[in-house]
Structure formats: C-alpha cells, structure tokens
Amino acid sequence: MNVILGTMRNGTTATLRQSQLFAAVASSRMQCSTQTNKPVVAAKMPFRVKVTGGKRYVWCACGHSKKQPFCDGAHKTKAPSISPRHFTPEKDSTLMLCACKQTKNAPYCDGTHFKVIFRHLVSSVKKVFKMNNLKKMA
C-alpha cells in the first residue's frame, strides 16, 4: 500500500495511505501546491538545436515547458518566480541549450548536467543500499 507524508493546513504532519490522501485532499484538510521557486530538470543532457541568426528565442528556465528547450508559458502557473530567458543568436548555428536548468551561462549548456547526473546516481545507489539493509533486517 502506498504511504504518503503530508502537511495538513493546521501545520501538523500526517502519514496517510493512498485512500486517506484522496479523502483529505477532497475535504480540503490538506494544503496542495504545484508551484515551485526552483527549476526542475527537464532532461539530463542538453538539447542540440538549430537556430536562425537574428531570430528571437525564449528559453524555458523553469523546466515545466512541454516545448523544451523553449518556453510555452508553463512558468506562469507552475513557477511564477522563474522567468524565461530571451536570446537572439547573431548567426545561423547549432547550439547546445541547457536542459538541466542549472547552468550558470543560460541558456547555453555549461556542463553542469554532469553534476545533476552524478547527484541522481548517488541518490539511486543510496536507495539500493538502504533497500538491501532493510531486507537484511527483516
């Protein structure tokens, strides 16, 4: 059975089974929010994109756009504190645009995705060891 930890409107924390979660949300006892102030990783590798010189592009900085790597306006509801980045290439070229949304050189990839991949790998390995330790205890 799926168990979810939730924060109730009065500030207390509750552990709910899936059926209880739906009842709590339906009765508005649980505070739900889909907004974020941190970008989400759209992909772990950069997007290779052909661009036209002199044309204005809008790069998604929040990671919620369905038209990655470009903005579709999803930040307005999912990440209102994150604004997209406007850029105009000088000439026709192929660019590597950041998909992990952690670059320091937006909208261009600066290799930061390797750190994102590494963090994900470390997290996955920790989960495997944690599961193995739980199995040994049982």
List keywords for this structure.
6 strands, two-stranded antiparallel sheet, alpha+beta, 28% helix
Write the layout of secondary structure elements.
Elements: E1 3-7, E2 13-17, H1 18-26, E3 47-51, E4 57-59, H2 75-78, E5 85-87, E6 93-97, H3 113-137
Antiparallel strand pairs: 1-2, 3-6, 4-5
Structure report:
One of its GO terms (cellular component) is mitochondrion. Its cofactor is [2Fe-2S] cluster. By secondary structure, the protein is an alpha+beta fold. Helix content is 28%, strand content 19%. It has helices at residues 18-26, 75-78, 113-137, and strands spanning 3-7, 13-17, 47-51, 57-59, 85-87, 93-97. The strands form 3 sheets. A two-stranded antiparallel ribbon has the order 1-2. The protein has a two-stranded antiparallel ribbon with strand order 3-6. A two-stranded antiparallel sheet has the order 4-5. A hairpin with a 5-residue loop joins strand 1 and strand 2 (13-17). The chain is elongated and about 65 Å long. It starts with a strand and ends with a helix.
Question: Could you provide a short overview of the structure?
Answer:
With 138 residues, the chain is α+β, with helices and mostly antiparallel strands. The protein has helices at 18-26, 75-78, 113-137; strands spanning 3-7, 13-17, 47-51, 57-59, 85-87, 93-97. The chain is elongated and about 65 Å long.
